[in-house]
Amino acid sequence: MKNFLLFLSFIFVCNVVIAQDEATTSVEIDSLYKEDQFYLGLTYNLLGNKPKDVSQSQISLGFHFGFIKDMPINKNRNVSIGVGVGYSTNNFNNNLFINENENGTSTYQVIDDDIGNYSKNKLAQHLVEIPIEFRWRTSTPERYKFWRIYTGFKLGYLLSSTTKFNGDFGDFKSRNNSDFNDFQYGLSLSAGYNTWNIYIYYGLNAIFNNNAMLNNKHIDMNAIKIGLMFYIL
């Protein structure tokens, strides 16, 4: 239900901004225009490079917003470099049980019959991010609806994390697991026309650092995010 309400809220905000955009009257033409933009995104989150028997369950969502400064690099100002700052919160529902020990270390186990049934097992992360983009678009000083392809690199710093488990075995919750990588980075792509844009992020490094082991092997899972990105001038 929370994920559904979040999605409805996202659609509502987008429709409001679309209506405002369509109602905009003529404005003074700016030959030195830039596409400085706020962005708002909703993604379906996947785990790549999963260890054997690790799987995802339920819907895992991510919510992203921030601001990007646009710096045109050609005369037509339809090619630019964008640099910004933003915030990202991500959930990953899965069957990897993370148990924090009394000494502060964590152990990892794939949920099986020994643990029993469970209603929730997820990890959540909150990051501040710096997107760096190479941007191409068909915009002009008079054209506000255009095609765009923005591709780039996104660096994230982990602000906080939470892992939760609710099931027959008991209820467990831990915060700021030291086994998560503080810095997480990857490649990003936004492409579309006008308001709606397909967004893809592929993490280049693992979510966990070298301390996280499952069956004596490092957990190399990375984040993959697929969804929609909305830009507001």
From TrEMBL:
Source species of the chain: Postechiella marina
Domain Outer membrane protein beta-barrel per the UniProt entry, residue ranges: 23-209
Name by which UniProt lists this protein: Porin family protein
Range of residues in the leader sequence: 1-19
Assigned keywords, A-Z: Signal
Domain of life: Bacteria
Annotated Pfam families: OMP_b-brl_2
